[in-house]
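pasting input
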Amino acid sequence: MSNKILIIDDEPDIRIYLEAVLEDSGYVACSTDGEQPLTDIIGQEKPDLILLDIMMPYKSGLSVYRLLRSNPFFCTVPVVMISGMDYQSDFSELKILTRLEAEKLPHPDAFLEKPLNIPALLQIIETLFKKRGQQDVVSGN
Amino acid sequence: MYPATEGIDIWLKERLFDAIPMALCVIDRDYNLIHANRAFEQMFGEWRNYKCHDVYKGKNQVCSECKSFQTFEDGIPRISEEIGYIKDGFFCRCIKHTVPILDKQGRVSCILELCADATETDQVLREYQLLFDQVPCNILLIDRNYRIVKTNARTRQTVGDIIGDYCYRGLKGSDNACSECTARLTFEDGKLHTGHHIWRTVEGETVHLHVIAVPLLQFDGSFNIVMEMAVDITQTIKLERGLNFAQTFLETMVGTSMDGIFAVDKNGNVSIFNPAARRLFKIRENQRINREDLEKMLPPGAFNLADTSTKQLYLPDTTVVNMQDQKVPVRLVGNKLLMGGENIGVAYSIQDISEIKQLQNQKLEAERLAAVGQTVAGLAHGVKNLITALDGGMYMLKTGIGQGNIERVHKGMEMLDRNIERISMFVNTFLGFSKGRVINAKLSNPSDIAREVVLMYATKAKECGVILRHEQMDNIKPAPIDYESMHQCLTNLVGNAIDACNLSGQSIEFKVIIRTMEVNETIIYEVIDNGCGMDYEIKKKIFTNFFTTKGLGGTGLGLLMTKKIVQEHGGKIEYESDPGKGTTFRIRLERIRLPKLAD
């Protein structure tokens, strides 16, 4: 069975783009703009991986990440963070990782910057699924 | 006329008694008045067939302590002071001599009493003593050895009992005579001398006195006593010193102040004009300034403050004209000088704000350039999103063609179209921001701006199911505001508020309220919504460049522009927001900080 990937991004064109790319690569893709209650969507879709945009309307990707990691049902779902902010921004990779460390939260599984390098994104996703498969074998799932 | 020698015995026997100018009477052992002279009758009235106590005191029994009784007993003559005798119906004071009259056997058969009226003398003495003690100055008598002979009550209160002591020791605690001794000078030349002395009080404090020394002359013009009268001037000296300090302080402050200070009296004549004011108005050091000059130099209405009911004039940004007919931007404050409610003139303080204005302009320009700089840096973010979306469009187009999927081709085309249009909007807005716009303040009604924005958004709000309302306080006076810019600010805020309602997942009646009010000379706009609110990270970023939460719909410049415009009006923008509950944006425009009206 194909792995399911949930895209959380407020920009509809990017959602369409990523859904197409992921489906073309053999994954099942679904998306949300981040405004609907996430726990409902995740509970309903049961994604194997989440692509999470940082800058979203009235709620940042960071807040969503905190929510995911504090929920016992979703805390193990791999998350790839995507940001378009430069290194000076409060939402740069370095600053986000520093803040997560300060809050004693784990780093996201991967961090990608826009514009997206699609082969790199697909490579990361594949690696994460492989890693997870190995973990499942070890744990006997 | 002297009586003839041969008749002297007769005269002594018959006339002397009446001729003596003192009240004389003879009383027997039963206290009956048996003889009295004319002076007695004049002093005490009818005496015949009366007893002495009847006549003296109107009493019907012998007085206690009666001197005549004692003399009858022991035969010793006495002199006594009698108080309470009645003379012409009034009490009087007498000096009474009680003299025994002896019979042939040497027994006291009668008493001769001589009464001298001392009422007036006593009164004078009392008055003198009262004056001496109660006069509001210290009085002391000093002899030629500088020993104090007498002091009045006030002196005793001040320095204690120092009678018999040397004046320099008793008054000053010194073992040596003073070098500038007023008493010595008076002893030397017999004239009045004055001086400033410092005494030590019984409490050990120091008091300052103005001393006048005069000789206490005897009948022959000689004197051995000097009277010193010393008035306590400690408080006067303190006040004088305080006054001197205040005057020196004031003169120094006014003279060295970096601000111009000048004053006019109630007739408008210039009474003070400090060096800083001369520099500001370009007036030479010795050049006189008259009221006409000043009236010409000050802005209209500033000179005539004294004629108005206003107590203070505050012009934070005005212009004066100096003596070389050049306009100088200044801050001018005028205060009416009132003494006990009476107007005695006006004091002005003036500051040249040319440099401040120049710095303000430079700061604004620097802020604008910095904002542009930051914006350019932040542009990458916007561009990255656009590139991603364009990549997406191209991907959809290519793969659609490759797969023969016409629907995907169409989607790709739409994505490309949308994002190309977005690039165009982005570039235009950015160019507008980077160019900036000069604030063009016109006298505008603050409520009108809000009302117009509400009208403009009425249709959109209705379509979105949002109740949009304007609430305004009455009587907000017009203010110098750039109408278009402020309109743009409120448009941004109201647009955001409606979007926030659209984004909220709650099923409630959505409202956007715009309030216009004025509190303490500050015009306030509030834009309140009960939309989705903002979380912490979003709140932190809302005024930064190119921050947008609206995906394809926003450029990220709206709030940045709003903040910039508010700042250019000397105002502040603040907000409160609760995720899921709503947001309130508040613009505060203090009237005194608003820009000057455009010419």
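fyi The longest strand of chain A covers residues 4-8.
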